[in-house]
Design a protein that fits this description.
The chain has 17 helices and 21 strands. It has helices spanning 2-8, 158-170, 176-182, 192-202, 214-218, 233-245, 338-348, 386-391, 393-396, 441-457, 460-470, 473-485, 492-495, 550-555, 559-572, 582-596, 633-642; strands at residues 24-27, 41-42, 44-47, 50-62, 64-67, 79-82, 90-93, 110-123, 128-133, 226-231, 253-261, 264-276, 303-307, 324-328, 357-366, 373-381, 402-406, 420-422, 432-434, 499-503, 513-517. A seven-stranded mixed β-barrel has the order 10-11-12-13-14-16-15. Strand 3 and strand 4 (50-62) form a beta hairpin. It is globular.
């Protein structure tokens, strides 16, 4: 205790209060807002008259200063430097007679950029500013955030104890990266115990190390595991023939898997291997009717499902208890990051229903071939099944209820005569498929139909009471806020597709229902004219979907629910939260990509490099994720959200 008090006496908390100043905007031609101060780019007020702005410039842009607090476009006398690559070799004096028009271009209020990001630093006290080439700031790698480095400065020292105390005093621990670094003992809480451990560490002790087992071992975001699949020639040819007979086949063939992580190797024989996917289904080799070609193999990216216990049901046929893996290629995502970003964002926002996912590297070997084929970087996803429910049973309340997979653009929860069936191991694809307790299908169907009837036909007062009884309304609203923020147009509300529902009880009433998000590759600027929308970035978040799919539309009819939904949306794009503001989003994307870029090239010859663009079939090809311009999806989405009343 004396050591603790002695160390605390060395901690100094410094609070700086800066005077409030009027917002200052950069106005001019693109990318600064097309001469309209209401569309101008707000500069960051650094205090003491210093302002900064980072943006992408390709070609010549013109500058105008505007005070955002007045209709009078106040001009400032100023100087600036510019030159090749922003090296400041040329200086121009600004004429104070210049107005908000381009005039005759005789005034030198311009800067020419060469398709780069630039940082502009303005000192409006002495009326000068400089331009320099933008250098991306060093940010913590989300794969390797150092627990104990609370303030994120790449060191563990007394400043981190100071930061931890500040967290406890202010309660400002809503940034998920900070929470992860501050939870020194890995107990999912920030408290005095974490301070004690850091103090002991400062005095020569050791920091605890996490023990990763089971699902935490397989989906460890600090490691990219290697997966090697081995298939006999006969079984591989059978898989190709199954695809030719029915592209949506769910039938398995025998294979073996080798899972390599952190130098540990797990080898399992007699596992089940099948193809997966919806519109992304592909033949993994050659063309229709063609069997395996040993010497001139035409490999194709495809989604795979691996069932480790398909043929032998024992503990040896698991990877630390994990029985199934979904291996997904980045079909519609030249950025190799969209779905990973979305599931990470769900978890950051506290949405515990989101499945786990991670990068992996995949090889496939057909026995008899001289070498295995490298399929490249894949996404490894947790299946939503019985084990998923059991792993979260304390949150669900029970894991033996009814789980429904909802899809085919026909699962609007509005048609009692819809296509409702159970998973019977056939290749049929239904709008609603019962995935658990299939022997009780009739009872499960009755429950689902009763749920639909209440969603569609309860009076407004009855619905308001009922929906709060059967679900965690905040969790539902927050889930849908993330869904809309990432631009998921192929969802329940807009397209009656891509979600799961779980009822934790098996009676017609008396259960709790949970909405489970699913399939997020067509997001973050990949847009399509579908349902009621044609722009996944600018679409009004309050009019996201077709109200004939009534669940979310009915919930948002109530002012208190609507206010929560809007508040959740705005929180997502607020700077400093570590959620979906442009800066932190770009930092995570760059860190993820830096981990995989050396592994992208592969033996299929497909998707061999990273490109900052959406899927090629989309209707808004202009969207990007890493450029700081007017087509940046995070910027566009934040504007659409912040425009909400």
């Amino acid at each position: 205790m004396n050591r603790y008090l002695t160390l605390l006496t060395t901690i100094v908390l410094v609070l700086a209060t800066l005077p409030a100043q009027a917002a200052i905007y950069m106005v001019g031609n693109a990318p600064f807002g097309d001469w309209n101060p209401s569309n101008g780019v707000e500069m960051t007020d650094e205090g003491n008259g210093l302002y900064t702005l980072t943006t992408h410039v390709n070609g010549t842009v013109w500058f105008v200063f505007a005070d955002g607090q007045t209709s009078d476009w106040t001009m400032f006398n100023a100087n600036y430097r510019y030159g090749p690559n922003g090296n400041g070799s040329q200086e121009v004096t600004l004429d104070n007679s210049y107005t908000t028009q381009k005039s005759n271009n005789n005034h030198s209020y311009k800067f020419s950029g060469s398709d780069e990001d630039y940082t502009f630093t303005f000192n409006l006290n002495n009326l000068t500013f400089n331009i320099k080439e933008y250098v991306e700031p060093v940010v913590p790698d989300p794969f390797s955030l150092t627990v104990g480095d609370v303030n994120g400065d790449q060191e563990i020292n007394i400043a981190d104890i100071n930061a931890l105390i500040d967290l406890l005093l202010t309660g400002n621990d809503d940034n998920p990266d900070i929470k992860r670094r501050a939870d020194v003992n890995y107990d999912q809480e920030i408290n005095i115990a974490d301070i004690n451990i850091l103090i002991d560490y400062m005095l020569g002790g050791e920091l605890p190390q996490p023990v990763k087992e089971g699902y935490d071992y397989v989906w460890d975001d600090e490691v990219i595991p290697e997966i090697h699949l081995t298939v006999s020639l006969d079984e591989w040819n059978r898989l190709l023939a199954l695809y030719d007979a029915n592209a949506y086949t769910t039938q398995y063939v025998r294979a073996a898997i080798t899972f390599v992580k952190d130098g540990e190797t797990t080898v399992i024989d007699s596992v089940g291997l099948r193809l997966k996917g919806n519109t992304s289904r592909r033949r993994p080799e050659g063309w229709h009717g063609q069997m395996h070609q040993r010497d001139n193999t035409d490999w194709h990216h495809a989604h795979f499902g691996v069932n480790l216990r398909k043929y032998v049901d024992d503990d040896a046929h698991t990877i630390q208890g994990v029985r199934k893996l979904h291996l997904k290629w980045f079909k519609d995502d030249p950025m190799y990051v969209r779905e990973l970003f979305c599931y990470d964002l769900f978890r950051r926002a506290g949405i515990w229903t989101a499945l786990r996912d991670n990068y992996c590297r995949l090889w496939l070997h057909v026995e008899g071939d001289s070498k295995e084929a490298y399929y490249g970087v894949y996404e490894m996803l947790e299946p939503i099944d019985k084990r998923y429910l059991r792993d979260r049973s304390d949150r669900f309340g029970a894991s033996n209820g009814y789980l429904w997979k909802c899809r085919n653009s026909a699962a609007g929860l509005n048609n009692p005569n819809g296509d409702i069936w159970y998973d019977d191991d056939s290749d049929d694809r239904h709008a609603y498929t019962l995935e658990t307790q299939t022997s009780e299908f009739d009872n499960a169907r009755t429950q689902l139909l009763d749920f639909m009837d209440k969603v569609c036909h309860l009076s407004d007062n009855e619905f308001y009471t009922w929906i709060q009884e059967v679900t965690d309304i905040d969790l539902l609203l927050k889930t849908y806020a993330v869904n809309v923020a990432v631009g998921m147009w192929d969802d329940y509300w807009n397209n009656a597709n891509n979600y799961y529902i779980y009822f934790n009880g098996r009676q017609t009433s008396g259960y709790r229902f949970f909405f489970i998000p699913y399939d997020y590759d067509n997001t973050l600027g990949t847009s399509l004219r579908c349902g009621v929308q044609d722009d996944a970035g600018r679409q009004n978040p309050l009019r996201w979907g077709n109200d004939n799919n009534p669940l979310i539309a009915r919930v948002l009819k109530y002012s208190d629910f609507k206010a929560k939904y809007v508040a959740f949306l705005k929180e997502l794009v607020t700077s400093g939260k570590g959620l979906m503001d442009r800066s932190s989003s770009q930092a995570r994307i760059r860190a993820w990509q830096s981990r995989i870029e050396q592994y992208i090239d592969n033996d299929t010859g497909e998707d061999t490099f990273i490109e900052d663009k959406p899927a090629p079939w989309g209707n808004h090809s202009e969207y990007n994720l890493l450029k700081n311009n007017s087509d940046n999806f995070f910027t566009v989405k934040a504007a659409a959200i912040n425009a909400l009343p």
